[in-house]
Amino acid sequence: MLRGHRDLKVYQLAYKLAMEIFHETKSFPKEERYSLTDQIRRSSRSVAVNIAEAFRKRRYQNMFINRLSDADAESTETQVWIDFSFDCGYLPQDCYEQLMKRYEEVGKMLGSMIATPEKFKLS
Asked: Is the separation of the CB atoms in 88 and 70 below 8 Å?
């Protein structure tokens, strides 16, 4: 029985990843503060936020799916920012690979939730 969005494994992973992004981006160059750093932090946090909002709207299947789709889009955006971060030399290879692998996992979990929204519907 799910009591809240914090019980969802996908939320837990998305939140953890957003915090990892936050810590990794502390070492990004100052000139990236208002572009890459802000963008990757915003999109990574938005994944968890949209999952939480989806959970609250699960009574309405279309709204639930819409918010999960938004979370998936933000996850994909974050992956693009991770690509930029790596290609600019701000992330080491191992960190890049781990972040990408775990964001792929988030995408798969969201895809499964979108495909079976009835599992999350309120009774």
From this structure: no
The secondary structure of 27-90 as a DSSP string is TS-GGGIIIIIHHHHHHHHHHHHHHHHHHHTTTSHHHHHHHHHHHHHHHHHHHHHHHHHHHTT-
In a domain, 122, yes or no: no
Q: State the pTM of this model.
A: 0.94
Could you read off the pLDDT of 13-71 as tens digits, one per residue?
999 999 999 999 999 999 998 899 999 999 999 999 999 999 999 999 999 999 999 99
User: CATH number, domain at 80?
Assistant: 1.20.1440.60
- Cβ-contact 119, 109 below 8 angstroms: no
Number of structural domains (the chain) is 1
Task: Write the DSSP assignment of 63-74 as a string of letters.
Answer: HHHHHHHHHHHH
4, two tokens: 């809240």
**Position 97 in a domain:** yes
